[in-house]
Amino acid sequence: MPELPEVETIKRSLNKAIVGQTINDIEVRDYKLFRGKRHDVLGAKIEEIERRAKMLIWKLSNGKYLLFHLKMTGQMLYDSEDHKLIAGGGHPDSVYLKKPPHEFTHIIFTLDKGHLYFNDLRKFGWIKILDENGLKDEVAKLGPEVDWPEFTFKYFVTAMNRKAKTKVKTVLMEQSLIAGIGNIYSDEILFKAKILPTRLVRELSQSELRVIFDNIKPVLELAIKHGGTSLKDYRQLDGSQGDYLHFANVYHRNDQPCKVCKTTIERAVVNGRSAHFCPNCQK
Ligand SMILES: [Zn+2]
Fold it and tell me: Domain 4-140, what fold?
């Protein structure tokens, strides 16, 4: 699933590609992925594209919003009138290499200068049409973004302690406490902090919490700089693959040597998700 750096990368590319264009038509081929009345947004102009947690928000000229969540295998692919394809999200399945629309294209936006296709192999992704209050309700349950001023160390400690009996990796991924961190970046943050993902929050000292907190922003910022990961479920909006995984220390590197100490990276299951860690560097 794309996390904060991947969705941020898509946001930046789409802002350059489609802002200012009008939504002339929306073809909904599968209403499971589309919530709202398409007529509410036809003729509206895309004014701005924002990100909140792992979701993309299109702000429209008529006061409405389109909210997108790519979930596991969702992909946004923009085919401009000069046929320059740009894509974000997705999956390695060869169907994603086919020119859309194809069997996994579920929603098609006709814009002034091209088409935007919402493709999804597993159909967990969705698009919602919301007004301002609906959008507020949708994001109300999310914790702060890590670059917001309210995301302070004091907030972080209070938030973590609300889940004191839970493993630290799981709590970092809790969207109601901190927005945007998932499986990849929780592993990377904890490696940098030298903390095992299986530790319970209540076992962490104040100074250990401080080191975790201090590594959150740098890890996410480095990933954004490299366009996110190139894992199977993600492609950058210009079709290229993000190269962050070359910089990843532990994520999906189980059975490979630690880049710091050469100890073999291990994998464990934490609350149903894979955790990757160095048993020597992390305590
Ligand atoms: Zn190590």
Answer: N-terminal domain of MutM-like DNA repair proteins (3.20.190)
